[in-house]
Specification:
The complex is a heterodimer.
Chain A lengths: L1 H18 L4 H9 L8 H10 L4 H6 L1 H8 L8 H10 L2 E8 L2 E12 L2 E4 L7 H6 L1 E4 L12 E14 L4 E6 L30 E6 L7 E11 L5 E5 L10 E3 L5 E10 L26 E8 H15 L13 H7 L8 H5 L2 H12 L10 H11 L8 H9 L7 E2 L6 E2 L1 H25 L5 H14 L4 E3 L19 E3 L2 H7 L26 E4 L2 E4 L3 H14 L9 H13 L4 H14 L4 H4 L3 H4 L22 H16 L22 H18 L8 H5 L4 H11 L2
Antiparallel strand pairs in A: 1-2, 1-4, 2-3, 3-6, 4-5, 5-6, 7-8, 7-10, 8-9, 9-12, 10-11, 11-12, 13-14, 15-16, 17-18
Chain B lengths: L1 H17 L8 H5 E4 L12 E6 L7 E12 L6 E12 L6 E16 L3 E14 L4 E14 L8 E2 L5 E18 L7 E17 L8 E13 L2 E2 L7 E14 L4 E13 L4 E14 L1
Antiparallel strand pairs in B: 1-3, 2-3, 2-15, 3-4, 4-5, 5-6, 6-7, 7-9, 8-9, 9-10, 10-11, 10-12, 11-13, 13-14, 14-15
Classes of the chains: A alpha+beta, B mainly beta.
Chain lengths: ~725, ~290
Amino acid sequence: MKTLSLFLDQINRATNRQQDKTTLSVKKSVRTNRNLTVVNPMQISDYLGQHNFSVGQFINDQHFQERVIGQNDLLDVCFLRRGEEVARSVCRIHIHSDTGPAGFGTGFLIAPQILITNHHILPTNESAQHSSAEFNYEEEEASIAQVSLYPFNAEKLFYTNEALDFTIVWVDDTAIEGTVPLQQFGFLPLIAEQGKIREGEAVSIIQHADGAPKQVSLRENRLADLSLPQFLRYITDKKSGSSGAPVFNDHWEVVALHHTGIPRYNKNGQILNRSGNVWDYAEGELQIDWLENEGVRISSIIYDITTNANKRFPLLSRFFTPITDSSLIAREIGEASTETAEELYYPQLADEEDKKKYYQDIGGIDQADYANLQQLLESSHSRPVSYQPAKYVYPTVDLHPDGLLRSIYSGKTFTVEELRLADEGVDIARKLRLMEWSKNVQTTSREDYRRELKAIEEALPYNCEHVVCQSWFDAREPMRGDLHHLFACESRCNSFRNNHPYDDFEEYKPRPTWSVEKEMLTCGYTENDRFEPENNKGIVARATLYFLLRYPNAISVYRKKGIVLLKRWAKEQAVTQYEKHRNREIFLLQGNRNPFVDFPELVDQIDFQVSNERRAVLSGFPKKTKAASEVANDVKRAILMRYGYPDPDPSSIEDTKLMADFEFSNNQYLMLTAVFNDIARKYHTKPRKIMVSEVLACGVVKDCIDLVNTAIP
Amino acid sequence: MKKVILSYFLLFGSIAAFSQTSNTSSWFDTHVKIRQSMETAEFKEMPAQFQITLPKGDSSSWLVNVGVSMKLNSNSTRWISSLIAEYHRNTLTVAEQHNMQASYGFSGLIKRGAKTAWFLNGNAGYTYDEVNRSHSLAGNFLFTFMGERGPINTYKFMPDTGSRFYVSPFVGFQIQETMQAFDKANQGFLLRPLFTFSVYFDIIRKKILTPDPLLRLAVDYTGRTDLVNSTNTTEGYTHLLQSGFEWFLIGKPISVSLGGSFNYGSDPLRGLAKQQYWLLSLNLYK
């Protein structure tokens, strides 16, 4: 339990630092932890006061608390127990050179008798031979615990990688000092899989900072950068001297081997101290203004051990399993793509490939018409999402190349966090208004509740615009959450547009920037219940045309004239990189694409009037291209399965085979009829129904095939 | 001798009529079936019999057990209907049977789930029993199911495909309204819940796509009870067990087989009194 007191002390120190806004750690946490909007009671009180919320509301509403505080930081108590267990495997390295003691570092056991630390701590075989590992160097109540000191056996195992800054070395189990067997200190298994931690999540570090007794830097550190190929960066108060320490996630899995700190530099490239002045070596490393720390990814270490080290030291194969994830391997050997910011924003080559696959079922875009495109959009809309812009629209989909959000009508810029917080405020306001309403009504029917909720939502909209207004389709899903027609938009413009259809007023001439990057102050112009956007007419037109194609006759707002207008707008503004990015991200999220972004020329090719003929076309178009051989095989397979062959080969049955030979019972003929109708439906949305008597009349197998074929228009 | 002539006429006349040399089927092929009985479902359709019986302690005599069904064209995706005529006469057993029926038969797919389909098989029509001189209206309504694969109402081929297996369970009820009878005590209404369970095991003659059986072992058991009985007679639980083998002499288009079976029990609707007999028979399937 001696470690527990350390943990508690750490928690206290962390709390104190959070209250002292001037300390470095608070600055760092504010900088890195985007979710932490309010971090102490004073700030919570301020927040409640500014928003006219009572403390009682805050205390009694858990969801409200989570929204205000930003996250739930509670952990199971076993977190501490587990931390105590893993801490046992961490040791202090006594670094000795030829000339004598050279300092301290940290290391930890990663397999029985195999220790890992940094290359810069044990760079050579000789340095390892002179150095040793000291376990249990920890403070107890008022003393130092009984330590155990073990020598290294570099002849049995010593492998080092300067680039990755790690060394693994064999630890002899014959103690130089102490009586505790080495096995009792256990080891920390290395896990190659990625995804053990995400940016912004807490990391903990167990270390011998500056050679001091073992300490833990507990969860006050946040992972800052996961983009580096072989390293990851985190912000912590870890001090120098703890190189070689394990970096843990909240499950106490080792996610990195700490190896260096990233100091703050001035413009001349000089390291700065914590006072902001140029750091001098004489001040000691403790005075450096450390920006971030860097650890070596565990996956990189395992890859190197299993591909290089084990050739020299086959015993390693007993302890480390080679990585099989090809993408991970590609990254480790430096073949991972080095994407530019532009490619990250919109990976054109990958998208072209996806686009090709997506449209291949309709036999080329030249063959596209309303029916087959509609079917494609509907069938591929396989993962519809609900209407939660803070979750689905702002974070990725609607981002512009500069990482900001822009109002679709005014061009006003926002950060993701701004709109997310604003929507949270909307949520709170909606909830309060609903609570207020429920206090004043005696009895409420479900219908009343829905009506009120709808009114509140309309009065307090999110900062997100449905270019096809929700009221036109009664806010039904999946239309409501369909990302293709959702755009960031400040509530001012959202309310200004109201639910008016688009129009083009002769007397109104918006500034034709056609640039989504330019900020505009106005939203547009409205008159006679019509609305003309200030910006991005082409974008909203393509989104609206998508809606008309995806949801035939779901709305009746745009008739012939309206569609002509939308087509014109779509043609006047070229597809932007922003739209391509959106289209791809939405495709990855909900499964379907906007064909008018992929192929702008389609706006002239598609007859949108069909949308106004309620599914007239949809009721009878092919689901997939009917290949005669496919139908025949399906029919033959059905006959053979009905006869009793569980996994039949259709080629085993001749077209001229007599149906009478199967001696099907009446019940089997009924089943066969049902299956034949299934086959017809597979190839057409509304095939002609096949009757039992028709199946009974089939003399030979070919008759059945013909029967099914004739049922498919 | 007249019976012998009649029997062989039917047998060989049928062969001539149904034999086909072309690879197409006629309307007659696809719509007409000849069986021993069309009582409920197709798997109650035992082969038509023209045979010699050897009853216990009596001399041999002749038996006719035949049913003919003709499918009707129906404009449905779920129902098949047919007209059925049956004639049963057995003068050779301890208790004579002489019964005829004309009925409307039907099979319907009533529910199709992801894995299992449920069916209703039945018939309704007129029955005349010569022994009791009774006229009845009667019907059978039996439910069964079928999976995607055998052996429930679909063959299950054994791994070597040299044999196959078939199970056919039914459960339902039978109704009978005897309007007129020589013995007035037989007049009245009967409702009989019933179940049947049939198992077939075929040794296949030749391993081809649609093989003919060489030898068939079969057990068929029907149990019923008069749940509702307004007549002045008491039936209680009655059952009929038919088990035996068939050795197939000819395959398609008409199957002719020699069979031996053990029969025990009764079938009130068909005027078969409770008795026990062994049967050696010449069977005909179409």
